[in-house]
Amino acid sequence: MPLIASITKAYSENRIEQRLKFCCQPKLLIVDEIGYIPIDRHGAHLFFQLISLRYGKGALILTSNRSFSKWNEIFGNPVIATAILYRILHHSTTANVKNNSYSFREKVKARLIREPEVEES
Questions:
Q1: Cα(18)–Cα(10) distance, integer angstroms
Q2: What is the b/e burial string over 91-111, where b = at least 16 CB atoms within 10 angstroms of the residue's CB?
Q3: Please, which pLDDT band fits residue 21 given cuts at 50, 70 and 90?
Q4: Between helices 3-12 and 41-54, what is the axis angle to 10°?
Q5: 1 within 8 A of 9, measured Cβ to Cβ
Q6: What is the predicted pLDDT for the residue at 57?
Q7: Is the pLDDT of residue 121 over 60?
Q8: Where are the domains of the chain?
Q9: Helix or strand (DSSP H, E) at 6
Q10: What's the whole-number average pLDDT of the chain?
Q11: Which end of the chain is more exposed for a tag (fewer CB within 10 A), N or C?
């Protein structure tokens, strides 16, 4: 189950504190594909809570195919997006990878998919 869906479900079941605590336990938390699945306002608030709890306490790896300037669209609110980005980017290292993955390139070669236009940062 996707991370934001799991914390939203925990919230609806009145178990949010336990779920956030569980997500803060690992020394490294990897969140793959931020922005791939739409995040509603409530999910954005819950994700902010998670990021705030982990802030300065554990390593975090995030992947996204969206530039930071588009994160206000992902979270539906520029204030929440800015707060999340502040906590994520403070004391961080970022890597911007512009090449497509091996499996993606192979699918394009086999004409199974078309190569999309690249989003500018």
A1: 8
A2: eeeeeeeeeeeeeeeeeeeee
A3: very high
A4: 100
A5: yes
A6: 87
A7: no
A8: 3-109
A9: helix 3-12
A10: 89
A11: N
